[in-house]
Amino acid sequence: MDYRSLISTLDFSLEEQDAILALADRIAASPTESGHLLGGHVMASLFFEPSTRTRLSFESAMLRLGGRVIGFSEAASSSVSKGESLSDTIKTVSRYSDLIVIRHPKEGAAQVAAQIAGIPVINAGDGGREHPTQTLTDLMTIRAVKGRLGDMCIGCAGDLKFGRTVHSLVRNAARYPGTKFLFVSPAELTIPAFLRAHLNERGIPYEETTDMERSIADMDVLYMTRVQRERFFNEADYIRLKDSYILDANKLKRAKPDLTILHPLPRVNEISAEVDADPRAAYFDQVGYGLYARMALILTLLKGGAL
Ligand code: NCD
Fold first, then answer.
1. Taking the CB of the first residue and of the last residue of the chain, which one, N or C, has fewer CB atoms within 10 A?
2. Is 90 exceeded by the pLDDT of residue 114?
3. pLDDT of 219-249, one tens digit each?
4. Which ligand 1 atom is the nearest neighbour of the CA of 225?
5. Per-residue pLDDT at 306
6. Best residue among 123, 134, 245, 285 to mutate for probing ligand 1, ranked by most atoms within 8 Å of CB
């Protein structure tokens, strides 16, 4: 197999990942220079779950590299609604395209797609498990704002049980020496056992708490997340837990002056709109970095990263 896919956040070594982030920085510095690199290439964008940023940033990334895009944004508009299997869909689409980007509600769906596609596949979110390109986006943002990765305390708050962006970010950021984590969640939405085991095996320091007010003062990065309504078994639990943590100007009084506030978005209630004007809020800049991170990833998978 002479091509690569990105299914899990640890699929690329640290060196490979740093090369992608460096390429993303170069693209960000002069975005128009890469506008012709993927002429003649086609990316298939298969979204079986709702998305705004991830889908549009992938599509924009491919178009900005000079390539073309085919695909669907909901399963209802594909033959899946007629009962076609994922495997048959992938075997078909791989004959129309050079690269497949897939988001699917089932954990492991992207892995299955990669095994049968015969072309590079990118996991754009599989159920509650992984979201590796959001992590590239998050790491690019942290590095741009802080000037480094590692040697920092990353706080993650909200739905740490079902939030796939946290699952991917934590395992990846843990590779940079000096990273420690502060997990803030209601008792029902703590990090899953596999993540706790991952950190324990590697001796990565972390604390788990329900107390946002007290812990915010120790954080260098605060990664807020939405409670993942679509992954709850019952609506009553969602309603009880959805507003557990709302970041507002008052809570931020206790935070470091150089805290970086991130959120993969969409936000529902968990960051009050007044925080948007705080210079520590970086979540809309994060959206912008996502475009360059995905341009760099697509180039790497289709052209070995050559610029
Ligand atoms: C996230 C996702 O889909 O997991 N959104 C995104 O891709 N930026 C986060 C979320 O939906 O809460």
1. N
2. yes
3. 999 999 999 999 998 999 999 999 889 999 9
4. 12
5. 47
6. 134
Q: What is the distance between the alpha carbons of residues 268 and 89, in angstroms, rounded to a whole number?
A: 33
HSE (CB half, 13 Å, CA atoms) of 259?
Answer: 24
Strand order across the 260-262 sheet: 206-209, 179-184, 152-157, 221-224, 260-262
CA nearest to 86, candidates 117, 56, 58, 59: 117
How many angstroms separate the CA atoms of 223 and 157, rounded? 6
- Of 254, 167, 261, which Cα lies nearest the Cα of 223? 261
Q: Which domains does the chain have, with CATH numbers?
A: 14-129+290-303 (3.40.50.1370), 132-286 (3.40.50.1370)
Q: Record the pTM.
A: 0.96
Judge contact between 227 and 238, C-beta under 8 A.
yes
pLDDT digits (tens, 9 = 90+) for 38-82: 999 999 999 999 999 999 999 999 999 999 999 999 988 888 888
Answer whether the bond into residue 132 is a cis peptide, omega within 30°: no
Q: How far is the CA of 1 from the centre of ligand 1 (A)?
A: 31
* Cα–Cα distance measured from residue 47 to residue 37, given in angstroms and rounded to the nearest whole number: 25
Output the CA 145–ligand 1 centroid distance in Å: 21
- Cβ 261 vs Cβ 281: under 8 Å: yes
SS3 of residue 223 by DSSP: strand
Tokens, residue 149: 């990765």
**Could you identify the atom of ligand 1 that is nearest to the CA of residue 53?**
8
Atom of ligand 1 at shortest distance to CA of 264? 8
pLDDT at 80: 82
- pLDDT exceeds cutoff 60 at 307: no
Beta bridge partners of 149: none
From the CA of 204, how far away is ligand 1's center (Å)? Answer: 25
